[in-house]
Amino acid sequence: MSDSGVTRKLAAIVAGDVVGYSRLMAADEAGTLAALMAHREAIGGLAAQRGGRIVGSAGDSVLLEFASIVDAVDCVIAAQRLLAERNADLPEDRRMLFRMGVNLGDVLIDGDDIFGEGVNIAARLESLSRPGGICISGDVQHLLPAELQAQFEDQGKRQVKNIPRPLHVWQWTGTREIAPPAASTVTAAPATARTRVLVQPFESRGGQDEQRHFAADLADDMIAALSRMTALVVVDDATEAHDFTIAGNVRWAGDRVRISAHLTDEIDGTRVWTERYDRSGEDIFALEDEIAETIVASARIAIKQQEGRRLASRDLTSLSVPELLSAAAGIFTTRYDGGDEARRYLERAVALQPGNSMAQAMLAIAGLRDIELRAERPGEAERQALARRAREAVRLDPRSFFARMALGLIELHLFHRPDAAAPELERALELNPHLMPAQSAYGLIRCLRGDASGAAQIRHAIEVDPREVQVERFYFELAVARFAAGDLAAAGDAARQSLSRAPDKPRSQLLLLAALALQGQRKEAAALLADLRQRHPPFDAAGVTCPPFIAPEDEGRYLEGLRLAGLGNRGEVSATKG
């Protein structure tokens, strides 16, 4: 680039490229090239009608320049709608979708080429877009007329590589009408999704043919599991912008296998989670399911915690709704007692967007957690308010697995209505089988209905990631299941495991107290009762609430155990049900 031929000016820049281009080329090279040329010609024609021009078309990309920002945005919306019409009659795996980014910035012009940070930012915005979608910068949004502004949603500020300042990103809402290719591992992000995760193929070392395929299949299973999570977008190309990367390797030695996995935060370059799994490869399919589910569960928690830490330093009023939800999720996955802090973010999200199902459901869960930390019984008004909020979350989004789970947990643990909880938890698990709190709660309901195999479902939820904050509840649910089965020793062991993770939870202390007293272990029961009263001074006056038993004899045995332990009289110890 010669200095003498370079000029500088302010311009509207559009950057675009094809989603899953390598996959399309591998399937049909000639057809893909023909489609790309035809789509570029159409985009160029729309640009020319609005005073714009194509200034770059390397590979599968397109770069456009406009004098007017309104013309640029009007052009890309028209282009995406035209491409959607062209794709409508094609098989899903042959549809060619573009991502597009629009920026207003200073550019350097050298003949027919343009350069500069304005172009770089447009390219970064394009990489943040959904398939078939458009991302624009805050500078662009502020200059649009009201009718165009209304077509974009605030996605908050994003830090991207090689751009020193965060970008304020706005996403085109018209993307919801455009479906991505089903065969692609790129998943279109819902309106609240922000976090992009790349799953790299795991490196395979050693092993026979079947074992060598294990690494690739493992990555595919992880992609499928992550794609069910509404807060995440899975990308399949390392050149696309992404926030986190899951990678690892698989090493075989005969029938033994060692799987190493790690999660890297691509924004700051830190490795935020790493784990190693040593297993027998005797049942390779069961092993694949187990490891994929375990890695995804651990990575999900690590991602939420990392994003929560990043957002905690930001001013509350500067956060968008997706960022507010991410901040609250970071608290949820780090601390069980963070309800008050999480509620600040969630109430702000509801104030900004009252119809947000996830915000409503998370507020219901925050209320449930608060009650579980208290010794006193919840009042009827408090229980009903949480139930109404959970039902509203389901009404707003009947396909939200989180809203269904929230309602199921409230029906089970606050109202002790397993029959009302079961269909909500079943639906949640249909939508996302990897939802461990729903797995554990549904396993408890199965046990209470006489299906002893439900205990294995609870144990599975515990084993997937023992570091999960909610594992305390899983152990409590296992303790309730074993108590109802008459195995008091196992009930006591599970209650102790629950207390080792949350010593202040009165429900696990009470269940252990009843199990000890019924086994005649009066000395240990007396020490536990003293500790219980010290931790919860108003406890005696408030009384207790039974676990969600179905059989009246289970409830009676529980209350009798508390009386044997010396917890008050019959007026003080009573069952509370919804």
Give keywords.
single chain; Rossmann fold; Serine Threonine Protein Phosphatase 5, Tetratricopeptide repeat; eight-stranded mixed beta sheet; six-stranded mixed beta sheet; 22 helices; 14 strands; elongated; disordered C terminus
State the gist of this model.
The chain is α/β, with parallel strands linked by helices and 578 residues long.
Describe this structure in words.
By secondary structure, this protein is an alpha/beta fold. Among the domains are: 3-183, Alpha-Beta Plaits (2-Layer Sandwich), CATH 3.30.70; 197-309, Rossmann fold; 470-578, Serine Threonine Protein Phosphatase 5, Tetratricopeptide repeat, CATH 1.25.40. Helix content is 52%, strand content 17%. The protein has 22 helices and 14 strands. The strands form 2 sheets. Strands 1, 2, 3, 4, 5, 6, 7 and 8 form an 8-stranded mixed beta sheet that branches. Strands 9, 10, 11, 12, 13 and 14 form a 6-stranded mixed beta sheet that branches. β7 and β8 (167-172) form a beta hairpin. The radius of gyration is 28 Å and the shape is elongated. It starts with 5 loop residues before the first strand and ends in a 13-residue tail after the last helix. The model is unreliable at 176-193 and 569-578 (pLDDT under 50).
Q: What portion of residues belong to β-strands? A: 15-25%
Distance from N terminus to C terminus (CA atoms, Å) equals 76 Å
CATH architecture of the domain at 3-183: 2-Layer Sandwich
Total DSSP E strands: 14
Percent helix among the residues?
Answer: 40-55%
By helix and strand content, what is the structural category? Answer: alpha/beta
CATH superfamily (homologous) name of the domain at 3-183: Nucleotide cyclase, GGDEF domain
Query: Mind summarizing the main beta sheet?
Result: 8 strands, mixed
